[in-house]
Amino acid sequence: MLRRVRELLINNLHVRREPDEIDPDAPLFATGLGLDSLDAVELVVCLETAFGVRLGDDQELRRKTRTVNSVVDTVLATTETSHGG
């Protein structure tokens, strides 16, 4: 899952790094990978499309997409919930 999220960041959000250069604990926004608010919208759309999850538009979304690891955790938790796992 970590590899897939890294590839999504590179291929869809044009993060200019190699997959293993993306620190899973680095912030996605601002000083981390440098994503902005438009990238945040694109990230949610890409995650929902790629993994068949619904992340919603709630206040928790910022926390869910803070780092690569938080994105991975969120996708895994949402996938398990939606598949009864």
Description:
This protein is mainly α and 85 residues long. The protein has one domain (2-82): ACP-like (Non-ribosomal Peptide Synthetase Peptidyl Carrier Protein, Chain A). The protein has helices spanning 2-12, 37-51, 60-64, 68-82. It is globular and about 35 Å long.
Q: Regions with pLDDT < 50 over 5+ consecutive residues? A: none
In CATH, what is the class? Mainly Alpha
The percent of residues in helical segments reads 40-55%
The CATH topology is what?
Non-ribosomal Peptide Synthetase Peptidyl Carrier Protein, Chain A
**Distance between the first and last residues' Cα:** 16 Å
What is the 3D shape?
globular
Number of helices: 4
Question: Mean of residue pLDDT?
Answer: 89
**Total individual domains:** 1
Question: Which SSEs are present, and which pair or pack?
Answer:
Blueprint: H1 2-12, H2 37-51, H3 60-64, H4 68-82
Helix pairs in contact: 1-2
List keywords for this structure.
0% strand, single chain, mainly alpha, globular, Non-ribosomal Peptide Synthetase Peptidyl Carrier Protein, Chain A, 54% helix
Concise overview:
The protein is mainly alpha-helical and 85 residues long. Helix content is 54%, strand content 0%.
